[in-house]
Structure formats: structure tokens, C-alpha cells
Amino acid sequence: MKVTVVGFWHAYPEVGEATSGYLLEHNDTKLLLDCGSGVLSCVQQYCDVNDLDGIVLSHYHHDHFADVGPFQYARIINKGMGKNKKEFTIYGHQEDTASFNKLAYKDLVNSYAYEEGKPLEIGPFTFTFKKTHHPVPCYAMKVECEERAIVYTADSSYFEELADFARGSDLVIAECSGYKNDHVGQYGHMNSKDVGKLARVSDVRQMVLSHLPHHGNHAKLKNEVEEEYSGEVTIAKSGLAFIL
Ligand SMILES: [Zn+2]
Ligand SMILES: [Zn+2]
Questions:
Q1: What is the DSSP track for 181-194?
Q2: Where's the Metallo-beta-lactamase domain (predicted)?
Q3: pLDDT tens readout for residues 38-79
């Protein structure tokens, strides 16, 4: 499978970029993991929107789902031009019913509620979910395909079960919202020290730092994670792709 960073910013996108969004592909199945602001525009650098099968959402904060509405409009416009090729489904949790109920749109977008502890198969991918520690209900996700596993932490402060969930995976896309002296845990986020601990405890092969802060030099985040962890650490940037 292949995963491409579409957007990596925390909270809001900087010029020409996007907040959380990762394009997951295997053969003809193409999904977005999260769909924050700027993602619909940026994903078109890597994929025709009409080739997408759907979006899997971690939670309903704007930096993870703001572009759902624009996607619905893309479906209606492309239908008018006869370009919609596939069914399109948005997967989300149902703990915030008002937000979940906005995912489906006319007969153009389906919605599906995933649940923790219940594996979900989408094309060649098997998803499992783990509730994180965040001010609103949010789920980390593990994607398995042909004996490879990617874990996306979504938004969370550090907790041991998150490391258990990530254990042994080939690639972890971890939120890293602050430098080691930034006290982001109180807001339900991880700093570089937390991410380093997650990497070390879960013994993963490779870490990608994402959901990056708008201050400081991101290269420092990598150095700080490497104080805790000796594996490979990469800082997310637009278009960065991994093939597993
Ligand atoms: Zn959030
Ligand atoms: Zn976020």
C-alpha cells in the first residue's frame, strides 16, 4: 500500500497547503484518512477526486473534517458532468450524532459508522480503531493490507494503550503538535517527547511526525524524538509518500 501526505498542519493550513489528510492507495482503492481544510484542493495534485472511494474520519474537529462539505459539492458538480465513477462513502464515529448525520449527502455520498473493537474492511484494507485521549471523541486507526500495518494516531495525548495499539506496525503517522517543552498534553495532544516515547515503547519501524505546530523549526522536533527513539523519523511534508 502507499500513503501520501496531503496535509500536515495543526489547526489551520499555511499558504497552498492543508491540515490533516493522508491519501491511502492500493491497486484501485483510494481513500483519504481525514479531510481537514485545504485537503480537497491539495489531494488533486496526487489523484483525480473521481477516483476516490471515500474518507475515513478520526473526529469532527475542523482540521480533520472541514473539507467534507466541499467534497459533497464536488460530487454534485461532477455528477452533473457525468464524471462520478464510484460510490463514495464517508466513515466516521457516531458519538457526535449531529456531525455524523452531516456526512451523507443526497444519493451522492454514503455514511458509515465504525466502532472500536469491530474491524472494518474497505477494499483491500482492514481498519481497526482505538479511542484516543482528546477533548472530543476521536479514534486512532490501524490499516492493515498484505501483512503491512500503518497506524495513524489522529489527535491524542500520550497514553499507554495507544502504544499497545501501535505496537510492531511498519509505519506510524503520529501527531506532534509541540516541541518537548510545550505542554500540549493538557489539550489532548502529544509533544515531541511524547511521540518519542510512543515510538520507543511501541517498537515501530518508522515514525512520521505530522499535525505540526505553526512555530519553531520542525527539524528540532525530529531531533527531540530521536532523543527517545533510535528508529527512522521523518517530518511530514506535502507530497511525501511511503510505499509499504
Ligand atoms: Zn482534534
Ligand atoms: Zn487536529
A1: T---GGGT--BHHH
A2: 18-211
A3: 999 999 999 999 999 999 999 999 999 999 999 999 999 999
